[in-house]
Here is the input.
Amino acid sequence: MSVIKISVEEAVDWKCLPCNEELVPVTVELAYLDSLFNVELPTCPKCGMVFIPESLATGKMYNVEHMLEDK
Amino acid sequence: MEQAELRELESRCIQDETPQCIAACPLHVDAKTFCALMGQRRVDKAWTILAKTLPLPGVLARICDAPCKEACIRKDAGGAIEMGCLERFCAENAKAVAPPRPLPSRRKRVTVVGAGLTGLCAAWEMTRRGFDVTLYCQSFDCARAALSERGVSAELLDKEIASLVTMGAHLMPDTEISSDLVESLMEDCDAMFIDSDDVSSEVADFGQPDGLTLGTQRAGVFTCRRDESSPVFQAAAGRRAANSIERYTQGVSMVLKRELEGPYKSRLFTSLADVESAPPVSCEAGYSEVEAKNEAKRCIQCECMECVKVCEYLHHFKGYPKVYARQIYNNESIVMGTRQANTMINSCMMCGLCETVCPEDFDMGEVCLQARRTMIEKGTMPQSAHEFALRDMAFANGEKSALARHAPGVQASEYVFFPGCQLTASGPDSVEAAYADLRKRLSDVGLMLRCCGAPAHWAGREALMEEAMGELRETWQGLGSPKIIVACPTCLKTLRAGLPEAEIVSHWSILRALGPAECASKAGGIMAINDPCAARHNAMLQEDVRALLDGVGVEVVEPEFSGDRAKCCGYGGLLSEANPSLAESLAEKRALAAEEDFVTYCVMCRDMIAKTGKKALHLYDLLYPAETRGADRPSPGYSLRRENRARLKERLLTDLWHEEGGSAEPFEAIQVRFSDLAAENMEQRRILVSDVQKVLLHARDTGNMFVNKENGHLLSYVRPVVVTYWVEFEREGEAFLVHNVWSHRMHIMGGRK
Ligand code: SF4
Ligand code: SF4
Ligand code: SF4
Ligand SMILES: [Zn+2]
Here is the structure.
């Protein structure tokens, strides 16, 4: 499913503090209720910490959560 | 919901019942739609409404004696709608329409003998339905006379007779009608109708027909009564005969389910409360187009909608309870796909106003409560709908806030004060003052701080509700089952239902008996009273409060929706959790209900109204005043509410019982400040200070965070249970300044290696 997409710009200002690495797009798995999604999200290439920007959390993600809750 | 329940609910809501005029019309002409169209000057379209239902429309529309007027609801607000005059205007001014196209042939032959209005109408009705109709008569004089008697040109009849032929009827005028002819025709057809107005009893006498079927002793022969002079009732008799002949030729019951064929009284209720009286437009000289429009506009377009008129929730979802019941039923039957009614079900405030105003006592709140319980049972309740409120309830009943003690220094309680979790959250010092006053003026008053369980009830969580009530009962029994003094109207209602064995009295009744405390405000003034919906059926409570206000010199203004017609502030039923924007608009409407500042005795009402910027007091603010609790104080946010409860418990424990408070969790030591944006987002996104502290603690201890290359802000996240919280912050020495917060419920799988 490609319901969730984010633009790279939202993450360009951020980097991983402990690893001192720029974030790169990596496919990660998001889960909610009984659904799994593969989403490309900015991630630290070294430690794998995933970045979820505000706009995604309160926009697309929020909508999908609500949609799934009504399924 | 079982199908039988749906049926029961659907039949209870009478909104779809027929307006009285249509029910009273012997032919059931849709006068309501007709008036609506005439009111918009859509005369041609209005005519199609008449032509659809009336036989020989060009004739009947001009001579109908309008018995519907007797039943018109407008009758009691100036006068009934002049349907007769309107129909006549329409007949004279509308573009003619083609006669109706008959149904496919039934291959049944029907003979009509006699061509009075009844015979012609019967022929019209049966031809329409696909019967093979042959009409025998000596002349059309009888029907012509009916027109000229009413001052209408008799030529109009010829046009409708021509239409009848166009539709396929065979006319045999100039026939000498004799007994022999009638007998021989009978041999030759499947059924016969004899118009007794046009056929003398010497020729054909089958006696008076049966009132319901118009049948005679002779099988297959139908006739009309001889004494009917009203044209529309004559036409109705023609239709009744057609209905009977249809049943007869199909071999089905002649009598079952015929109650609504003739005029009847509809169950529809229509209120005239907001209708201004206006007399009919006189039509002695016939109507001009403007006059016809004005008269049609007097039609109030009868419907019920009593509940929808007063409930913004019902209004918001654009239907009415009958429709909603069906939607809820469908929602429950969905196996795969989107349950579109979830939000609707979770948006009812369960305030009971609908039941109060509904002529049939339809309680939408009860329907929604059952629907929520079913959702819980089936596991289809959206997780996010009530979770925050239930967590808050758990907090109020948890170690940090809950408390039960006998009064300091005594070992038994005659009373126990139960202020409720929202009062302690919003005005902890007023609770403290109230408790001190009770101890001073009554003996042995213990204290119970906890939640009554209403959120679990509203959320449809019966098991959780029972569990909470069970704990409450045990705690209360532990104090020796004292009389419970309750301040919050919702607690009062909930405890009376859940703890029937307890003696429960409202704090307001006690204060009314004792008189206000010495410290009570002397400011007086005029205030608008806001009855909370939980007090709807508690007249004594409403009275006590008014007496107390009188006692402190406050003059009370009653807004339109008061007492048993009180409106919910938007908190009830957890609306503000499940549908915050609707709750907000509701609170705003509530706030606009009076010019004066409000005074109320439900602290959620107080806070909901205050959130809109309107000044509001809780009655405690007058009885136990404090400078910090003015009518313009803001509603405390979610975090502060929790903190207030926890602090109150701590303070009371130390001051009254000289006990230590509980131990603090490590995250509570995190010192934090918030930017305005962060504070606003926390409130809106239901993120608590404690959630933020948990993230910051995690960030500090693990060092896992992102850093912003531009401004140096740090960002970290943590998922304590099901929600992941993100906090953007900077460090201020040991403390933290939070710039923004957000959250999501989706879970990041994998993640950090
Ligand atoms: S007011 Fe209009 S809708 Fe109501 S009964 Fe009269 S004609 Fe019918
Ligand atoms: S219970 Fe209250 S909120 Fe719910 S439908 Fe009835 S009036 Fe509206
Ligand atoms: S008040 Fe509401 S629920 Fe009751 S009959 Fe009228 S429309 Fe239906
Ligand atoms: Zn890293």
